[in-house]
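> @MW can you paste both from yesterday?
MW: sure, first one:
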Amino acid sequence: MPYAGQQGSEFKREFAARRGRQVWISVLFMVPVVVVAIAKRNHPGPLVAMMGFPIRAWLIGFFALLLAAIALSFRNWRCPACGGPLSRTLNHPYCPRCGAQLQ
């Protein structure tokens, strides 16, 4: 279904906002991963504890963060016109389900 005029520009604006949120979700997920990787690199040895916390606490925190990032992504990364899920890429010119122009 082709959308035009005010409605089409609103979909483009909403898609840009959703894409920005999706980038932030990805960045915020990667920051702890990089911090733990750097900490592990600077403190070689057995995975008993890092920065005073047992490795089990790090793993639980990582999986909780992973589940939160996945849930936020599924909720956020949808077409603003039809509400259908979008694929993994960030540069969608149009929705593959309804055909709405997104950029």
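MW: second:
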Amino acid sequence: MSFGVDQLKPAFDGIQSARAVPDWLLELRSAGEKTVLREGLPTRSLEAWKYTNLSVLAEGTWEVAEAFASDELPPRTDFPSWPSASCGEVALLNGVMVPEWSSTPARVRVRTSNQFESSPVHFGHASAHGRWSAVTGSPEKFVAQVSLNASLMRDVVVIDIEPGTILREPLVISTFSFGTESLTKWSASAPRVVVNVPAGCEVAIVEMTAGEGRTVNIPVTNVNIAKGARVSHARINLTQASGVQLGYTQISQARDSFCETYQFTLGGRISREDLEIRLNEAGAEAVLDGLYLADGRRHVDHSTSVEHAAPHTTSSQLYKGILKDESRAVFNGRVRIHRDSQQVNAAQLNNNLLLSKRAEVDTKPELEIDADDVKASHGATIGQIDPEHVFYLRARAIPEAEAIKMLANGFAQDVAFRIRNEAIRKGAETIVALKLAGESTVTDSAGDHHA
């Protein structure tokens, strides 16, 4: 029996009795379940999960998270909200869209799975290694999240942007989990979102994930960017300390498109965020930045994969982490430059700041190059705060604890400052500053939403 399968079966039984869904979603769910039952939860024997131990998820049975009726919804203020301006919100609770919490601009169309006769999620495109699963459409290293998501999906939310649309203030996609307080159970939810951005668009998107209780949140997002479109994207993980998040984002880019994507992992007992970007045609450019903050005994794992599948493509990555207490972080960044993908420019950097001698980081930047006319670099650093910098601030009557906090804030905010979209940058700066100050995340009263 594969690891964790016995604990997962109650959740699979529960999802089978969920509300009616189209046949194609039942087939996708069934195929995902077969994969998970065969493979089980990922273990450290797998190279992609070498430094992340999920054994805690086998310390209790899984149940599928409850789908709430409109008159039974918990208060919206129980969950964090985006603190800056936005053009609207698409809210999901336990993997199901909540119309009462959602409002979108006129040029954005939102549909759910029951509005599609066949699957709106496209799978099966070629993998760098030729090991794509017919079920998940993902490289082998990402099979776990996508198969788990497919097996427990209640719905699929598809967001279609009209051609030529300009959204400089972000469309906020909120995926919330509301789970059990039992110490012998895990409440699992699997939100699936697909965003289609056609040619001529300039769009900002923010994904916020948060959980209340003992939850396992498995969000999967597919963003398809057409020729010449520009996308600013951020995913912000604010899961409570008792929750686990296993997330996956796949971004596919066409000719001359641009995408900046930022991952802020600020919560969760265990957080795994996988990001895959495919630069499919010449002229495509991607910026991948991230920030993770961990304290206590929290575990944070980021895995990125950039596929330069065409010549004249560009990517850059900067991931930063701040760790204290006995926390642990993992970064595995992979850049693959395909054969005949000449004139490619790729850069990758992972910097880590340790505020405790007991904190630990495992970092593994990778380059795989099959072309000969490229410019590529990667690097990683792990260090502590310079005592001279602390002394400089203390000499100006700043207490030591406050001096360390100021220096850590400057190290972290460097990622937020790099965000080109002003509205996303302001919101990210606010959330990061609150987290570094040790305050709770923003609530609904702090939001400024515009329909």
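> thanks! Residues 400-417 form the longest helix (18 residues).
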